[in-house]
Design brief:
Strand content of chain A: 15-25%
Low-confidence stretches of chain A: none
Radius of gyration of chain A: 18 Å
Mean pLDDT of chain B: 79
Number of strands of chain A: 10
Distance between the termini of chain A: 35 Å
Strand order of the largest sheet of chain A: 6-7-8-3-9-10
Number of helices of chain B: 20
Distance between the termini of chain B: 68 Å
Largest sheet of chain B: none
Shape of chain B: globular
Number of strands of chain B: 0
Shape of chain A: globular
Helix content of chain A: 40-55%
Structural class of chain A: alpha/beta
Number of helices of chain A: 10
Order of helices and strands of chain B: HHHHHHHHHHHHHHHHHHHH
Order of helices and strands of chain A: HEEEHEEHEHHHEHEHEEHH
Oligomer: heterodimer
Largest interface: A-B, 41 and 35 residues
Helix content of chain B: over 70%
Structural class of chain B: mainly alpha
Low-confidence stretches of chain B: 520-527
């Protein structure tokens, strides 16, 4: 009940984006504050396009996006202040060290020096990067680069953390570290929206799951709610996901 | 059909890749531009023929037994084009070592890789020849039209020079690799390539300045000093020049010797390429690099953070820094001239002003591309809570800061000769760099910093307009430095040019389309 009274972490209404064909086609989505929301969908379903529009990286053709009550299209700077974005491809600067990278990101988000310094130290320690804090990122493995990028996304302590396939290409150890960091953030009251193709992770971590296909939300709910919808009490998420997407494609 | 793994098979493979790569470079990856590019190439070729006719149309009548001065000119031209070819070939060899695109596939296959490398060396010679023929060909055609078909022999001479240049490039780069190691060779070879490319022109100019106190290279080549120090007219040293002038006997000797050198070098060095490529591939597994001095963690304002980041990235990437600053190599002769003018007359400053302004435009364009288009973390910067305009202003400020650092010493030195001319130079440098940066801003398209060398392919309009506005500002500077009010008109031309470029830019087209769209939406909403 309390959850519904405060502004949702993300509210999307009638969102549309078209390239050659509609990528996002009248999407409505509501993510509550403090939940771990997994966005699933087949390749080309419109997940990344949706998240990029929320993060201010793409301009929608139509629709509204509200982040904790802030109209992200009318006040993109205000919305960006409380969003942390991490893409599947870690975009960091090869010639900077992790500490310099975090210093730069903290500068972009105008985080106060002492606060940023403490957060940087904690994040690097948490992600197992403190030994490499002063080494240039050019020699880092993909997992290390992704962890540096994640630290960058968290240095301003965002209320809404948006991650597009953050675990792609990570080894088991790195993936676990990232998952732990995200779970901890949700426990602290922040909201995480994440896309993934690894359905076991969605099954284990998500409070709620949304399934997108052809730019529309075709199913949403907790794991139990999705099972009820599919009518298979003991189905795995993979089985449910395939069943939902196949049903949608059959009716389309 | 060629047998898989044979030289011919590899050659076909390489030709297909090279053709598609060249096409993609010309069309910036857009198939719909192929016809436009073809028309552009024809227009460029026609334009070059007109330029060639205006430049050397009267020289076609040189006899088959040329004078020593003609031989000096032709030999100097061969050295000039040879140094450019050598530079281009060195870059190609270095790229072959360090690009890992298909090397791992080839090297892990049971095929004799030295055949592939032999073909790649041949491809380098071919691409070097084609580029030179494209640029020098129109001049040869005009000479053949005016002076007879024997001039077509110069085509053979160009091919011969390119074979020798490629062979020397292979020897130099592999030697560098074996002496200083794969880690340092990349940068050293790139710098060496750039220096070699400009060495002959700059060397000639310096010699001209010191011996004759002139900027004219042609006047120097005609000087008594040069005539007294070159070999006798009957010397074999002039055989290549005689061949280029249409003496088929000398031409045959020159081409055959060059081909023999090239084949010998290919046979010796192709097998070593595989070792070099493997060594180059292993460099990334080397020790990690710590940043110099650990400074205290300090968060600055968004604008300062951006400027600092841009400076750090540039300073820490020696390859990019060298690629950018190599354009300043051509400032060396004017610098020497500046130094000499302290002891000679002050009028020489007029020559320096346009050179400085042009260089600032070139450097500004390159740096602006790096900061605006070559942003390696565009998502990060775009998701930052900073208005886009402030973001772009900070990036342009970083560019102008670099320009100020590089050109301030020149302006200060110039001010010691003439305060007025220094002021003109400073204003011109700012205008030229700012114009180039603005063009990069209007024509920005996201790319990786490592694609710096291919930045010109994203927009030909941007490339040409950047050059033309630099020239226009240099012309303004020249007229202003000469003390004429006519400079105002030339400056207006430069601004007009910039305005036209703005109108043509995709940023402007997008803004127009967005305005139309928003008007349409309002109309729908109102109805």
């Amino acid at each position: 009940m309390y959850q519904d009274k405060i502004a949702p972490a993300l509210e999307i209404q009638s969102l549309r984006k078209r390239y050659e064909r509609p990528a996002v086609d009248g999407l409505d989505l509501r993510v509550r504050a403090g939940e771990f929301y997994m966005l699933l969908g087949p390749n080309g379903a419109g997940k990344t396009t949706t998240l990029r529009m929320v993060s201010g990286l793409l301009q929608p053709d139509e629709g509204t996006i509200s982040v904790f009550g802030i109209d992200a299209l009318a006040d993109p700077v205000g919305a960006k202040r409380i969003i942390g974005w991490l893409s599947d491809e870690p975009m960091i600067y090869d010639k900077l060290t992790p500490i310099e990278y975090l210093e730069f990101v903290a500068g972009l988000w105008s985080v106060e020096t002492t606060l940023a310094k403490n957060r940087a130290r904690d994040l690097l320690a948490w992600l197992g990067l403190e030994k490499h804090a002063h080494e240039r990122c050019e020699q880092f493995s993909r997992g290390m680069r992704q962890k540096v990028a994640l630290a960058g996304a968290l240095i301003h302590d965002p209320k809404l953390i948006i991650l597009d396939e953050p675990l792609t290409g990570l080894d088991a150890g790195s993936a676990r570290l990232v998952k732990n960091v995200l779970t901890e953030r949700v426990r602290e009251g922040n909201t995480v929206i994440m896309t993934t193709h690894i359905l076991e992770i969605a099954e284990r971590m998500a409070d709620r799951i949304g399934v997108i296909s052809s730019g529309k939300l075709i199913a949403e709910g907790t794991l139990r709610e999705l099972r009820d919808r599919v009518g298979q009490g003991d189905a795995t998420l993979e089985e449910m996901f395939l069943s939902i997407v196949e049903q949608d494609l059959a009716t389309a | 059909m060629s047998t898989p793994g044979s030289l011919l098979w590899f050659a076909r493979h390489e030709m297909r890749l090279a053709w598609r790569d060249a096409l993609s470079m010309m069309t910036a990856g857009r198939r719909d531009r192929e016809r436009i590019v073809a028309i552009g190439v024809v227009i460029f070729a026609a334009f070059m023929h007109v330029v060639a006719f205006l430049a050397i149309g009267r020289l076609g009548k040189v006899g088959i037994a040329p004078s020593l001065q003609t031989l000096i000119y032709v030999t100097a031209a061969a050295f000039l084009s040879g140094s450019a070819m050598l530079s281009q070939a060195m870059e190609s060899v270095t790229r072959t070592f360090y690009s890992r695109s298909d090397l791992e596939l080839i090297l892990s296959s049971p095929i004799d890789a030295s055949r592939l490398f032999a073909v790649r060396i041949g491809a380098m010679a071919l691409s070097v020849s084609v580029m030179s023929l494209f640029l020098i060909g129109p001049f040869i055609d005009v000479l053949a039209w005016r002076g007879g078909v024997r001039w077509l022999g110069a085509y053979g001479a160009i091919v011969a020079v390119s074979l020798v240049a490629t062979a020397i490039a292979v020897i130099l780069t592999v030697t560098l690799f074996q002496t200083i190691g794969p880690k340092r060779t990349r940068l050293a070879a790139q710098i060496a390539a750039a220096v070699i490319g400009g060495l002959f022109v700059i060397g000639l100019q310096m010699a001209a300045m010191f011996s004759a106190g002139t900027m004219s290279r042609l006047a120097y080549l005609q000087s008594k000093y040069v005539l007294a120090h070159v070999p006798d007219i009957a010397s074999p040293f002039w055989w290549p020049a005689r061949g280029a002038l249409g003496d088929l006997g000398y031409l045959a000797v020159f081409v055959a010797t060059s081909a023999a050198i090239f084949l010998l070098v290919t046979a010796i060095y192709a097998p070593r390429f595989a070792d070099c490529a493997i060594a180059a591939a292993g460099t990334s597994q080397g020790a990690t690099r710590k940043s110099g001095k650990e400074r205290a963690f300090r968060v600055e304002s968004p604008s300062r953070s951006l400027r600092r980041k841009e400076m750090l990235l540039l300073i820490r990437d020696p390859w990019l820094a060298s690629q950018s600053l190599m354009q300043l190599l051509y400032l060396l002769p004017p610098t020497v001239l500046l130094w000499r003018s302290f002891t000679f007359e002050g009028g020489v400053a007029v020559i320096l002003v346009p050179v400085l302004i042009m260089s600032a435009g070139q450097l500004g364009g390159g740096l602006a591309w790096l900061t605006v288009s070559g942003e390696d973390a565009p998502d990060l910067v775009e998701t930052a809570p900073i208005p886009k305009s402030r973001l772009l202003r900070a990036k342009i400020a970083a560019v102008l800061e670099c320009i100020a650092i590089v050109f301030a010493p020149f302006v200060v030195a110039l001010a010691l000769i003439s305060a007025e001319k220094a002021l003109v130079a400073a204003v011109g440098i700012f205008a030229s760099a700012m114009s180039a940066a603005s063009i990069q801003l209007w024509f920005r398209s996201q790319a990786k910093r490592s694609q710096f060398r291919r930045r010109h392919t994203s927009s030909r309009i941007a490339t040409f307009s950047e050059a033309f506005t630099s020239i226009a500002w240099a012309a303004t500077g020249t007229v202003a430095a000469a003390g004429s009010w006519f400079a105002v008109i030339v400056a207006l031309v430069a601004l007009g040019l910039l305005g036209c470029v703005r109108l043509l830019s995709p940023a402007r087209a997008q803004a127009r389309s967005a305005t139309r769209k928003s008007r349409g939406l309002v109309a729908v909403g109102e109805s």
